[in-house]
Write a structure and sequence with these properties.
Bound molecules: ligand HQG
Distance between the termini: 43 Å
Order of helices and strands: HEHHEEEHEHEHEE
Number of domains: 2
Structural class: alpha+beta
Helix content: 25-40%
Strand content: 15-25%
Length: about 180
Amino acid sequence: MEQRALVRLSKRMSLALRHEPGRFGLTPDHGGWVTVADLLTALRVGRPALDQVVAGNDKQRFAVERGADGVERIRASQGHSYPVDLGLTPTPPPPRLYHGTGAAALDSIRATGLHRGGRHHVHLSPDVETARRVGARRGGAVVVLTVDAAAMADGGHVFYRSANGVWLTEAVPSAYLN
Ligand code: HQG
């Protein structure tokens, strides 16, 4: 499949698995999994195209696993806007994490900290480069904030690391931002 078609399919998979499964006639389990067969039917694509998206995805957004029942299931590794239990284990973060955003959001973030918005968690990046890419999605000037994750963890804030390396936490008070 050609690159542009792959990106389009990846976006439809994100929509179906993270945001609006009902619109595709899908009913994810509590962990956000649907069977690969159901997803293929819902999106009207073949298995090779799905495999290409899962394997080639720049951010490894999707995870495929075979259950004890022998059935293959797929879910998004993070980024859901409907309630889902990813079953992630609280994990001590590296001392510093990064958050890329648009310059327009800066005053508000300095005043009130980072909020999770429509998602389950605030998303933090392990390195400046990744954060810069996340911020660049907003268009315009990019700001990369440094999060004092060590101090947050000391203060009792819980962190999780998604299967694709994104760090997640409930909120980041502005005192921990630089
Ligand atoms: C901002 C993509 C004003 C925050 C990416 C961000 C990531 C505030 C936006 C993943 C604020 C939320 C998540 C405050 C936070 N005032 N603005 N107090 N607190 N914000 O898309 O982190 O491609 O929900 O800075 O690569 O940008 O979907 O979060 O700009 O990993 O796989 O509110 O989404 O991954 O935007 O991105 P988002 P995000 P995928």
